[in-house]
Amino acid sequence: MPNPIKLIKTRRFSDPRGWFRENFVENRWADQLEADLHFVQDNQSYSARPGTLRGIHFQLPPHAQAKLVWCLRGSIYDVAVDLRSGSPTYGHYVSAELSAENGMQQFIPVGFGHGFVTLEPDTEVAYKVSDYYAPECEAGLRWDCPELGIDWPLPSSGPLLSSKDEALPGLAGFSSPFPYDGNPLVAIGD
Ligand SMILES: Cc1cn([C@H]2C[C@H](O)[C@@H](COP(=O)(O)OP(=O)(O)O[C@H]3O[C@H](C)C(=O)[C@H](O)[C@H]3O)O2)c(=O)[nH]c1=O
């Protein structure tokens, strides 16, 4: 069964001036992503300090979002959490190191929470989303939720969080609106 989370390797074309990279080509990426996927919004975030942790975030229906995530600068430990109701891997996560250097992208479908922690200063993350920003549908789970048990690589000073993320609830009280499609999460490895 196909892993719902996809890792996509982009190609860097180097020459004496520097390099060129295609970050998204709809008809070519379609082979690796979901068939009827259509991205409608591009986002970018900048984090000055390593150890900046954003997440675990997701939007609820009717504005749930699939995401394609990569690094424009620096690097992140990127996490996707299975939140699909009835999934045998509910509450399990996968992680991947995405960096400007490795050009890796992680695809996170609807039904998964997303978060990352930055591994370098001045890290910039770009991501495409498949539905528009809908603050009324924003939801999240706390980064250190014991039920999730995410092994974040953190600096000794701990993570830098927004006040919003500090106040997020744990998985215990969450009632998932996301259906399970029969594809369990397969750990890609870190
Ligand atoms: C997501 C979003 C935010 N905003 C505004 C709302 C706030 O005034 C400001 C910062 O938003 P927030 O603190 O939610 O940003 P992050 O903590 O980086 O959250 C994002 O990063 C995690 C890892 C995700 O996967 C989500 O896509 C997204 O929630 O941008 C917008 O105007 N449009 C948007 O699409």
From TrEMBL:
Active site: 57, 127
Biological process, per Gene Ontology: dTDP-rhamnose biosynthetic process; polysaccharide biosynthetic process
Gene Ontology cellular-component annotations: cytosol
UniProt-recorded Gene Ontology molecular function terms: dTDP-4-dehydrorhamnose 3,5-epimerase activity
Pathway participation: Carbohydrate biosynthesis; dTDP-L-rhamnose biosynthesis
Coiled-coil stretches noted in the UniProt entry, renumbered to this chain: none
Keywords: Isomerase
SUPFAM superfamilies assigned: RmlC-like cupins (SSF51182)
Enzyme Commission number: 5.1.3.13
Main EC class the enzyme belongs to: isomerase
Recorded catalytic activity of this chain's protein: dTDP-4-dehydro-6-deoxy-alpha-D-glucose = dTDP-4-dehydro-beta-L-rhamnose
Superkingdom to which the source organism belongs: Bacteria
Site feature Participates in a stacking interaction with the thymidine ring of dTDP-4-oxo-6-deoxyglucose, where: 133
UniProt cross-references to Pfam families, sorted A to Z: dTDP_sugar_isom (PF00908)
Family per similarity comment: Belongs to the dTDP-4-dehydrorhamnose 3,5-epimerase family.
Summary of the function given for this chain in its UniProt record: Catalyzes the epimerization of the C3' and C5'positions of dTDP-6-deoxy-D-xylo-4-hexulose, forming dTDP-6-deoxy-L-lyxo-4-hexulose.
Listed PANTHER family: DTDP-6-DEOXY-D-GLUCOSE-3,5 EPIMERASE, THYMIDINE DIPHOSPHO-4-KETO-RHAMNOSE 3,5-EPIMERASE
Subunit-structure text: Homodimer.
Protein name: dTDP-4-dehydrorhamnose 3,5-epimerase
